[in-house]
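Feature request disguised as a bug report, sorry. It would help if multi-protein outputs had a clear separator. Right now it looks like this:
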Amino acid sequence: MSRADIRELAVPSTGIQRGEVVVPTRVGDPVHGLLSCPAGPLVAGSLRARGRPVRFADLSGEPSADTDADARLFLVTCPREEGGTSAVAAAAAPGDALSAAAARAAVEDWAAVCGNRSLLLAGSPWCSGALHAASAAVQAATDHQGGGHQVYVLTPAAMPPEAVTALGDLGAIVTDALDDVEPGAVVLFPAHGVTAELRAEAGRRDVTVIDATCPLVATAQAAASGAAERGHHVLLVGPPDHAATDPISSQAPGRVSVVDTPAKTAAVSAGNGGGVSYLLQPGFPLEAGAPIVSALRSRYPAARPAVPAETCYAPSDRAGTIYSVALGSDLMLVVGDPRSSDARHVCALARDAGTKVALIGDAADIKPAMLAPVRTIGVAESTSAAGGLAARVLDALSGLGRLTVAQRRLSTEKVAGALG
């Protein structure tokens, strides 16, 4: 679309102040009737970048008889995927030339990048273990709301933000210790598990425990304990600051070494010549662990996996999904908190595909220049993304023209009897 497609209309100016630009949520168009404006957050972002105060409002009323009292609305229409029409619009108060110029410029910028696009979603960032723990926590809080026992969720409570909000609404308390847990309370262990010491302390207290530890983490904990009982030293392959590291290491005090790079294996001492077992930490990608395991076995050829048949494929599947989506996209939008290590990790995975990547914490962070040459947009959500942010981004982009949306997810599934 071009500047010639932009129309200037008179709309009721009630409430529009000089100095501000109003971005409509709905607008009355003499040609198309009542239109929604899903791209409003994008227009507002452009205006705020220009230093203009912005407010959202419904401008669907009829123009007044006194045209001198009407605000100036700048509008361009776009077709939508479902067959309707949406508007990209902004308005300024009567006689406010500076705000009117800013409103027109913002609409012009977005009109220039309106068009048909495809959008490819990388699916949810949450693994089945985290979703199970979130469901268990919400169910417990629901069961005990209003007259039941207080529910405490031990950190790190890694779960979708919608579940965190639901827990707060239900009165559940997230805590990192048992010190303040009242007698008779319900305590939920998170997906990453808890240390052996914390588990023992919970057993001594007058509390009801709901163990939502991921089955793969629980298996790793049992494997570390079993290997230690056999006199083995356990080499835990994964980052030392991962939430599951301490819960696993605590099962074999003094017998676990954590390594997260091949180079660090050179500093590992397996003790007094006993056996050596290694364990790939759940949540650590297989591709990242393979060279570390290779380096370990070059030092300890007799080392064997502590859990031969149990592997966490979720991080590898997620990485593969993000890479695949980025490979098929002209632009990859990573939705999340720019300060988050997970968001930065997702960006790195997408850049490995050679795709242009933008990390956005809000729909308003998307700029017209990002979309100018783009026909396929990939979207990957970080675990740090605010609740509903990905949906708001999709809705905003749908206001710029027809948007076809597809989701891609790579999934590794066990095949029973495949070798039999």
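(second protein starts here, but nothing in the output says so)
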Amino acid sequence: MAIFKAIRIDKAEKGTTAALTQFDDADLMEGDVTVAVEWSTVNYKDGLAISGKAPVVRRFPMIAGIDFAGTVIQSTHPSWRAGDKVIGTGWGMGETHLGAYAERVRVKGDWLVALPAGMSGRDAMAIGTAGFTAMLAVLALEKHGLTPNDGAMIVTGAAGGVGSVAISLLARLGFHVIASTGRTSEAGYLRDLGAAEVIDRNEFSAAAKPLAKERWAGGVDSVGSTTLANLLSMTKYHGAIAACGLAGGMDLPSSVAPFILRGVCLLGIDSVMCPIARRKVAWERLAKDLDRAKLAEITHEISLDEVMETAPKILAGQIRGRLVVKIA
């Protein structure tokens, strides 16, 4: 049996506690594949779990971290053998199943995706759940039938992980991208990613009208609440908004007007329980369509020791782009 480092979350008298500590792999949960974790990342949900700001963790003790890339060291699953390079995201890791902020993880082989050819584990975690979610949103907008000829795309939370990757993907596909952010000082960064316009998120802070002037064919929203309601009211006929986040709240103070008078669609994006076939398509597209040079420019590396001090910063919107965590 091996002892390894991990960020462990425990139930406390008031809330939870998080600490970098030693963990015995004899205490890992059931699974048919054991992976030596080499890279992880920090997502908004990870920040919530470590800080205890929301009831993300539903089992204690818990190892935090919802994403990993690493090498299989033991497997009884027919699809995987020792030495395989794999990616794991979602499926309740860091919530109900011991997660990725550890030097070792044990999971179901059916949860894993092969690391695409030409992509490093570091690259995969620079993408992480945030970039994977952005790709799922783009796939949903494409399935809806939207093309650059239909009009602009709006991306909210633009300087964050989902927003940054969504801008890069949509711009590379030829869309006119409008980036919405509360950090207008990041306009240069967002334009470098491919945004054609940068607007202040305060444009969406007032109560939404049932219908407003049509401004875009679709978009990717990671904010929710009043922001999403405004986006829907300003979406063109037969447009669509892919919703994948709730940084601004879980409510949706909207009306049915955009749906029944303009045929607008609200596309729900879930990355946690996403079927494996769709995951494979998304990662193949990410390997092909995402500008790896731009990804490198927006990525910053930290150690496992630095994750806990980073968690509050991502919740406060102080992290630009993507973070990778070097585990090994």
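Even a blank line would do. Unrelated, but nice: The domain at 129-268 is CATH 3.40.50.720 (Rossmann fold).
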